[in-house]
Design goal:
single chain; about 400 residues; alpha/beta; Rossmann fold; formyl-coa transferase, domain 3; 2 domains; 14 strands; transferase; CoA-Trfase_III_dom3_sf; CoA-transferase activity
Length: about 400
């Protein structure tokens, strides 16, 4: 049994923020039915690379889900949606604000047939406020929230974080909110509406930056790999790459000086006596450290740091970390069979449950793979299902690929 066994979720999201949220919930055992328009489906299905015509990128965040290809603009499509909504515990959407109302599938419409529903909206700027009407992708949120001004090298152009951090932050916030709303419903029997945005979610993660600004008026600028409040806490150049060092407190700093960098005199150096002074002279400190670290390869410094009990490590390329024995041992790369792409690799599960261990049970579905199955479970007869196909209300991209077809 999985933590969310029996929880039925209708997922009307696409790209990454919403699908990441529903992936987290599906991994925990929720039955997630992904409702997609056709014939194109979720916009992420257009992202290369493709294997046998299927997007590898789309398959990753849509694991453990079912796909129902449904025309929500068709009256009969809306009928199908509401039949499913009556039985759902949670509905999630990430349309531009106002779209679900135009389609007639908004919270109030669903609440009329399912008063206990938990309905979550994810958008770029939120459902309220002067910018609510604007669309918002990850790059828009990173720019708007100041994140791009505090990322990259000092004096350089604004830089995007290397991953779609705004999408992921919003998806994570939505998942947390949905789980809290579900616990509330278990206690009270009452559902509710909740919403988050890419902008809100990113701002909520600027914890120390907000403290520095509210407390001292400090604007967070780009610092490269440096920590804003601590040093040495960054990546330093080595003979063959970079090494990260996390020696931000006094105890670790002294170990670093004596056992790693072998400069015990720095402990009494008036420029470096305490953290405040080290931060004041951070440029000098970086130059002094790198003058030493460039003389040896990264592996040498990682070993020295480990021996001294000072946190540190290599700066890997993505392919190097995925192949690392530790990552493999943690099962963060797994293999599974996709019905169209064949054998594929996927990311593993970041939370390890002892009592209810999670697993990737199914790969990301093809567009409409579970259309017939979902309609059948909703009580439609074979004749009614065929009529929905004939009328262009529902769709299955590969109808002949089903077992026994």
């Amino acid at each position: 049994m999985l933590p969310l066994d029996g929880v039925k979720i209708l997922d009307m999201t696409q790209f990454l923020a919403g699908p990441y949220c529903t992936m987290v919930l599906a991994d925990m055992g929720a039955e997630v039915t992904k409702i997609e328009r056709f014939p194109s489906g979720d916009d992420s299905r257009r992202l290369a690379p493709f294997v046998n015509g299927e997007s590898y990128c789309a398959a990753i965040p849509n694991r453990n889900k079912k796909s129902l290809a449904l025309d929500l603009k068709h009256p009969r499509g809306k009928e199908v949606f509401f039949r499913l909504a009556e039985r759902a515990d949670v509905i999630i959407e990430n349309f531009r604000p106002g779209t679900t109302r135009k389609l007639g599938v908004d919270y109030d419409a669903v609440k009329a047939v399912n008063p206990d529903i938990i309905y979550c909206s994810i958008s770029g700027f939120g459902q309220t406020g002067p910018l609510a009407h604007q669309g918002g992708f990850d790059i828009i949120a990173q720019g708007f929230t100041g994140l791009m001004r505090m990322t990259g090298e000092p004096g350089g152009r604004p830089a995007k974080v290397g991953i779609a951090i705004a999408d992921l932050a919003a998806g994570n916030a939505a998942a947390q909110g949905i789980l809290a709303a579900y616990v509330h419903r278990l206690r009270t029997g009452k559902g509710q509406y909740l919403e988050t945005s890419l902008v809100d979610a990113v701002l909520a993660w600027t914890v120390w930056e907000s403290g520095a600004y509210f407390g001292g008026g400090e604007l967070p600028e780009a610092t490269g790999t440096r920590h804003r409040r601590s040093t040495p806490y960054q990546a330093y150049r080595t003979q063959d790459g970079y090494v990260t060092v996390g020696a931000g407190n006094q105890r670790l700093w002294e170990r670093f000086c004596r056992q790693v960098i072998e400069r015990p005199e720095w402990i009494e150096d008036p420029r470096f006596l305490d953290l405040g002074l080290r931060m004041r002279h951070i440029d000098t400190l970086e130059r002094e450290i790198e003058a030493i670290t460039v003389q040896r390869p990264t592996a040498y410094w990682v070993a020295k740091l480990d021996e001294a009990g000072v946190p540190g490590g290599p700066v890997y390329r993505y392919d190097e970390v995925l192949a690392h024995p530790h990552v493999q041992a943690r099962e963060m790369v797994v293999e599974l069979d996709h019905p169209i792409m064949g054998r594929m690799r996927s990311l593993g599960l970041p939370v390890k449950f002892q009592g209810t261990p999670l697993s990737i049970r199914t790969p990301g579905p093809w567009l409409g793979q579970h259309t017939t199955e979902t309609l059948r479970e909703a009580g439609y007869s074979a004749e009614e299902i065929q009529a929905l196909y004939d009328q262009g209300v529902v769709y299955d991209k590969y109808p002949d690929r089903h077992a026994g077809a």
